[in-house]
Amino acid sequence: MPDKSFLFKRPPLWSDHETAAQRRLPAELQSWLNETGSLTKRLRGIYGNRFGVELLFHRWKPAFNDECRLLKLPPARYQLIREVVLHAGGRPLVLARTVLPDPTIKIAHRNLSHLGTRPLGEVIFAYPDLQRRHRQFSRAEPAQWATAVQARMPMEPSVWGRRTEYAIHGHSLLVAEFFLPALFERL
């Protein structure tokens, strides 16, 4: 899997529907899972200039099979995979994985392929016709995370996340975000 992801040993399992376990989550976590606006904007509002992005993985690779199914892409075709950690002063808050198909990058005038440490949310939420098409939820267990990730940050006992399919000018991209314990320590 290291050729497809820095974050995961194996892909998370996603659910289209809220589970009983999810309904019992703390209100703070539920508010992040159900956020409809830009996470970047919300995090900047809390952490100001301490908010930043660290690029972990940025490669043209085949996406996970379930990502290809959701985006209606051939499984062997290369997509731009971007994985980052959103942090406040170096303290990890959110792990994110984005799948950017080539047609979406082209329609977005390549703004999406050269982000570097610029937050994705700053770019996609600037498009006036951005659509949110589909949202799913997952609880990633410690065994799913890559060894390099587990060595850098606490992944116990499990980490909740969401995956959203967005469309820009009718072309899809997929964004998965996992909310780390440090995010809730300040709140």
TrEMBL record:
Pathway: Cofactor biosynthesis; ubiquinone biosynthesis. This is Probable chorismate pyruvate-lyase. One of its GO terms (cellular component) is cytosol. Keywords: Cytoplasm, Lyase, Pyruvate, Ubiquinone biosynthesis. GO terms for molecular function: chorismate lyase activity. The keyword Lyase applies. Gene3D superfamilies: Chorismate lyase-like. The gene is ubiC.
